[in-house]
Amino acid sequence: MTGFPAGSRARVSLIIATTAVLALTASACGGGSGSSTSADGTVTVTVNDMPAKTDPVNRKIFLQDVAAFEKLHPKIKVVPHEGQMDPQTFATKLAGGQLENAFYVYYTDPAGLIAKHQAADISSYLSQFPAVNQVKPQLRKVFQDASGHTYGLPEGNYSMGLVYNRALFQRAGLDPDKPPATWDEVRADAKKIAALGKGVVGYGDYSKSNTGGWHFTAEMYSRGGAVAKQQSDGTWKADFDNATGKAVLQQLHDMRWTDGSMGQRQLLEWADLLQMMGAGKLGMYLATADNIPTIASQYKGDPKDYGLGPIPGGKGTLAGGGGFMFSPKDTPAQIKAAMAWVTFKYENPDRIETGVQRASQAKQPVGLPEPNIWTGAAARTKSAADQKYANQPVANYAPFQQALPGIPLILEPPKAQQLYAVLDTAMAKVLTQKDADIDALLSDASRQVDSLLAAP
User: Fold this and answer.
1) Domain check: are 307 and 176 in the same one?
2) Which Gene3D superfamilies does the entry link to (predicted)?
3) How far is the CA of 22 from the CAs of 133, 335, 340, in angstroms?
4) pLDDT at residue 9 above 60?
5) Of the ranges 32-36, 91-95, 112-116, which one carries the lowest mean pLDDT score?
């Protein structure tokens, strides 16, 4: 789960460009993923992540960047493809020489690709691209092995927080600048919001179409727990049939049945909570920052009404995103050319403001706290640019922004979607059955997850 509807990857691209031509040494031989070096030294590289024709604004921007890159790098030709890496077809494309030289992956993919030697080691080339050092270390680590070798470059990121309705907070006598920081505070605030009546729900949660298991995982992380734990032999086992797992389900049960703060309608999936928030009928729920402009654009909410706080508990937050890896069949010249493209498009702090300005002019959301891959001076540059060109209420996201550096970022578990489907059942039963046996639900789910994780 990415925080977005299944089958989509809604994100705001960082439209950035380089300011100097990189010196690239072309290899005399071609090959590698269907690309080559011509007689005059021109290196051709294939890349994916080009937006589809159904997204004309971002597709136009992407192709403009290809043209600008090729103008600065006359010895590199970029051949763009739509889409990202598909785990179902990856091995076939790699074996058949059809894999792009630079290919987009989600943060859950690199560890497996590195272990199977299905991505190029780019460690020796990093010194030629110093901007990568301003990317957050925890994001760069996603693309590293145990020895610290690097196999990819981050492009974007997200983490879970608490989206809340500032207008309802005010009506309930709560401070809209101080969202709840603990799960006890969530419960207390949800009761006050639900007491407003007229169909208002204090806190909403999912329990269908894998979204329930996704939120259960996020809530486990927030309390310092996990849903799966890697063993000393490298295998994984379920890790939620314990006091932390019981605390997650018990609180939801009590809010639903004792407090009445979660409403009567349950078995909710992704769009349901956004729709409720847009209609002014929901106080708060766990989500990523991009939900807010979606609530406004698709569900007619007023962006000024919504705030973003850190995930309650703050012991960990489910995080994700993506970046680029490089075909193990690439020649050195192809690796350097492909890295030049990726850093041109996604990792050059010198043109952050240009990218933010262009996104604002294209009426893309500007001012959300994420995606933001930067640290240090680059992070300050992006913050200033977001303030300057914001079309979102930046101040409403301050609680999230201020707390995030102190909250560990934790990736999704292995076989995440299959695990989420199992955990949906526990979430659904707790929210629809007053007499649900929480211990039995956790035990049954744990056995199923162990079987899934043990399967090849």
Assistant:
1) yes
2) Periplasmic binding protein-like II
3) 17, 13, 7
4) no
5) 32-36
Tell me the C-alpha distance between 23 and 187, whole Å: 58
**Total structural domains within the chain:** 2
pLDDT, tens digit, for every residue of 331-366?
999 999 999 999 999 998 988 999 999 989 988 899
d(CA 33, CA 216) in angstroms, rounded, equals: 40
Would 20 be classed as within a structural domain? no
Does residue 223 share a domain with residue 302?
A: yes
User: What pLDDT shows up at residue 374?
Assistant: 94
Same-domain pairing of 380 and 268: no
As given in the structure block, the two tokens for residue 329 are 């069949």
Between 297 and 273, whose confidence is greater? 273
Shared domain check, 222 and 148: no
Residues 421, 278 share a domain: yes
Rounded CA separation 209/384 (Å): 39
Q: Output the domain CATH number for residue 258.
A: 3.40.190.10
* Residue 24 banded pLDDT, cuts 50, 70, 90: very low
Do 294 and 148 fall within a single domain? no
Rg (alpha carbons) of the chain, rounded to whole number: 23
- pLDDT-derived band at 326, boundaries 50, 70, 90: very high
Q: Say if residue 430 is in the same domain as residue 358.
A: no
110: containing domain: 43-157+320-397
34: in domain: no
Nearest to 423 by CA among 255, 265, 209: 209
Any domain includes 24: no
pLDDT in tens, 366-382: 999 998 999 999 999 99
Kindly state whether residues 55 and 121 are assigned to the same domain.
yes
Assign residue 376 a region (left: φ > 0; alpha: ψ between -120 and 50; beta: otherwise).
left
pTM of the model: 0.83
